[in-house]
């Protein structure tokens, strides 16, 4: 038995079936009938079917690693949440319904079920909420409201579409709690001694989550990010340091148990 | 149009002329990701391992990658389990691959390279050895592959240790690459392979600091294709042993160009990062191309 949903060897060319814009975020949806249904926390390598390269500074060249946000059975209804943070994501955000999209995946190891006696608590920041949406779907009813943090009101409001029951913090206080999502997490961990945290977001947020969970002796599964060239273990470029040495995030992650890490350090994310 | 036929290389029979560049495909990790489909449709006609060193190496601190215009800058640092770990854990798994296995080795002294070559000399799982000479000899301070005498001394040292084909992976960061190739041939190498990555550097725009943990790295991808073609052309004219050409190959046309310049086999590297099946795709496209006389560029 494999520890993951395995990917077909072939990169598939699919069509963008739907596109929506919410604040600074773009959601691309596609059908992937030749691929399996991914695990929550797995990712795909995406590139545009045309004009990939030749843009500003002649980039992008490499595909971009993106967590899957939603997926129906049989590789149907894949959705990706994208924010324009560089030449690759900019090109992906430009794609319109009917445009070609190349995808390889699902890749990596996703989230594991909660440990015995633990109650899942989802914590997300910014575009990092994407894998929490599919995780929320898979965990089913009875999951407490996710805790989400955003830079501003526009991003916070956008998230209502995907995680409507969430409790939200914004840096500027324009929506929800004024401050950091980890303020909400600290209060929750103090109240509930049986939480298991599932988190995805920027490195500084994940490091704060890691420290809080260690303090409260709460297990935590962190979905990390790194620049990747291949997504399937070939390039050895996406390593993060763990207590056992470097691991490749693409094949040994992207979800990593927090207690394996000495710190979450952001490295080399490729936009 | 020609039908696919087997290709002979240093006495090894290959299903087609496309292999992988060392360090650009991890068949063990890929099998975890893709399952046994990888064995049923293996993308290369031979598999070249990532570099094996005597001692284990953790590799360089991240960041290890930087995207370039039409290419990639990397500073990976040759992470590997070391010889003992490779023999125990990796070799038995790699022996299950459906293609011949070429083990790439590197040492920091000639004795270390000799230790590695000797360790594989009698292993039936191994079809050939490739010497990574893009490494300083800590005893002489010279890059092993940058100087013809240094390269010759290394090959002369290890040649008697094995009857297996020895391929010398040339570095493009040398003043006279054909002279190094000739020295390798005269010292008994069976083939040369080129090009390895070109030394390069990138600065983080916000800070002006080096973008890579290893400060400098190696440039690969289509950005180096024209350089690869020129070096393969020059080296093939200088030697009569086998030549494996590589550098920025993305399509069958690129492979055909390297073969026209004198390569017997062509390796795919960076393109496999974008598409795991790139090797087989290039091989298929190559067969479909109209025949242009091999060695047409002289």
Point out poorly predicted stretches of chain A.
none
Oligomer: heterodimer
Biggest interface, residues from each chain: A-B, 42 and 41 residues
Name of the CATH first level of chain B: Alpha Beta
User: What is the overall number of helices of chain A?
Assistant: 6
Strand order of the largest sheet of chain B: 3-14-13-10-9-8-7-4
**Estimated structural class of chain A:** alpha/beta
Under CATH, the topology of chain B is which? TIM Barrel
Give the distance, in angstroms, between the N- and C-terminal Cα atoms of chain A: 34 Å
The proportion of residues forming helix of chain A, as a percent range, comes to 10-25%
Strand element count of chain B: 14
| Share in helix of chain B | 25-40%
Beta-strand residue percentage of chain B: 15-25%
Distance between the termini of chain B: 23 Å
The residue-averaged pLDDT of chain A reads 95
| Largest sheet strand order of chain A | 10-9-8-7-11-12-15
Largest sheet of chain A: 7 strands, mixed
Structure characterization notes:
The complex is a heterodimer of chains A (271) and B (298). Chain A is of the alpha/beta class. In chain A, 20% of the residues lie in helices and 32% in strands. Chain A contains six helices and 15 strands. Chain A has helices at 87-94, 130-139, 153-159, 181-191, 203-215, 249-252, and strands spanning 12-22, 25-30, 43-48, 64-72, 76-83, 100-107, 119-125, 147-150, 167-170, 177-178, 195-200, 220-223, 239-242, 245-248, 255-257. In chain A, helix 4 runs parallel beside helix 5. The longest helix of chain A has 13 residues, at 203-215. Chain A starts with 11 loop residues before the first strand and ends in a 14-residue tail after the last strand. The model of chain A has no long low-confidence stretch (mean pLDDT 95). By secondary structure, chain B is α/β, with parallel strands linked by helices. Chain B has one domain (3-60, 75-201, 221-288): TIM Barrel. Chain B is built from ten helices and 14 strands. Chain B has helices at residues 27-34, 37-40, 82-94, 110-121, 148-158, 177-186, 225-238, 252-260, 270-274, 278-288, and strands at residues 7-9, 12-14, 18-20, 47-48, 65-68, 71-74, 101-105, 128-132, 166-169, 191-194, 198-201, 216-220, 242-246, 265-268. Chain B has an eight-stranded parallel β-sheet. The longest helix of chain B is centred in the last third of the chain and has 14 residues, at 225-238. Chain B is globular, with a radius of gyration of 18 Å. The model of chain B is unreliable at 294-298 (pLDDT under 50). The chains are: A alpha/beta (271), B alpha/beta (298). The interface between A and B is large, with 42 and 41 residues.
